[in-house]
Amino acid sequence: MPEPFAELFKESEIFADREVLSPHYVPHNLLFRERQMGEIAKYLAPSLKGERGRNLFIYGKTGTGKTTCVKSVLEKVKELAVVKARISYVNCRIYNSRYRVLSKIASDHLPMYAKRGYGVVDIYEKVINWIEEDGKVLVVVLDEIDLVKDLDDLIYTMTRVNSDIKGGGITIVGISNKISFKEDLDPRSLSALYENELVFPPYNSTELASILKDRTDKGFKKGKIDGSAVNLAAAVAAKDSGDARLALKILTKAGELAEEKNLPVITPKEIEDAAKYAEEDIAYELVNTLPEHQKLIIYAIAVLSLQGGRYKKLTEGTDTYIFSGEVYDKYSSITQSMNREPKSSRWYRKYITDLEMQGLIVTYESGQGIRGHTKLIKLAYPPEKIKNTIEKALFRENEGAAPAA
């Protein structure tokens, strides 16, 4: 093998098993989530035994273990003889419409009907007939449910199954980072949900340190990471949001940096350098999954941060804050230039709260003397990168039509 390629394929001096450090890895034992796993199992028990149960909605910030817990519970219960339900896991980042979700369910259980050519009504009827033939219960996990574009139609369609058939039914498990997403639903969909709710709290630094220690023992070779480096990765992630996924990304990047430098051990210096990369990676990944109007609002903030605005901007050290009212005006202008209808100021305020909860912006209320009481906003990440990220997403979604900045 040529020398440059041989170097790429040689055994790692740092990593023992990179998969263990992946956010998608499901450990055998989930630390600090025993109560939540017990609650999930309790809420889903009737459905898993073949009875009609209540739907379950799970909320929490990114990296709090929601998806991992659900997957772990479902893997464990599959081994039990009493489980009679069929299960479909749907990643709504990929399957982001009613048609795609129903097609995924058909692909899981009725592959002969999953091919192209069947419409929503056809697939719906096939799924109903399949459920009704022996009264089975289907548990559908909709991960990142808020990303489904026609969510009202999907919720209405899936809850209607339980009214349209005599035996069996569908139980929905919705997972979302946004506790307020149901406020967007039509009243007819909300009234049919009949759900339990479960909120996942962020991990604290002590919990994150224990989780990371468990992963690093398996993911890195013995003696290749300093204990203080693990604690620092946990502290950085806990300070930011209690996000275990961020902590794991920091560790993986730190390992890669150590390997590039031919270092014998990962130290706090590599953690500090890796944190800069990992935080931005997660931020831009999150931006790409925002609903359209939240994308447009954060795009407006990025544009104003780069261009300046009509009003005097406020600076605090190197940070620049912008008036909330000007952000709304810019958002409305951009939205109208794309032939969209801007949301009302009430919805705008709710979206600002959502964006702050996800760590993408920072806000504070001004005191008197600055045009009265007003909210001041700044981006938590470099505006140029946020602007470019959203422009790529908007161009793709709107067939190349650039928003007017």
In short:
The protein is of the alpha/beta class and 405 residues long. It is built from 15 helices and nine strands.
Report on the architecture of this protein.
- Helices cover 51% and strands 12% of the residues.
- By secondary structure, the chain is an alpha/beta fold.
- The protein has 3 domains: 166 residues, 3-Layer(aba) Sandwich (Rossmann fold), CATH 3.40.50.300; 83 residues, Helicase, Ruva Protein, domain 3 (Orthogonal Bundle), CATH 1.10.8; 108 residues, Arc Repressor Mutant, subunit A, CATH 1.10.10.
- The strands form 2 sheets. It has a 5-stranded parallel sheet, with helices on both faces. A 4-stranded antiparallel sheet has the order 6-7-9-8.
- The chain is globular and about 60 Å long.
- The mean pLDDT is 87.
The best one-word shape is: globular
CATH superfamily caption of the largest domain: P-loop containing nucleotide triphosphate hydrolases
Strand/helix succession: HHEHEHHEHEHEHHHHHEEHHEEH
Structural class: alpha/beta
Instruction: Classify the helix fraction into a percent range.
Output: 40-55%
Low-confidence stretches: none
Radius of gyration: 24 Å
Reported for the largest beta sheet, the result is: 5 strands, parallel
- The pLDDT mean sits at 87
Tell me the fraction of residues in β-strands, as a range: 5-15%
Main β-sheet, spatial strand arrangement: 2-3-4-1-5
How many domains, in number, for the residues?
3
User: Helix count?
Assistant: 15
CATH class of the largest domain: Alpha Beta
In the CATH scheme, what's the topology name of the largest domain?
Rossmann fold
According to DSSP, the number of beta strands is: 9
Distance between the first and last residues' Cα: 51 Å
Return the CATH architecture of the largest domain: 3-Layer(aba) Sandwich
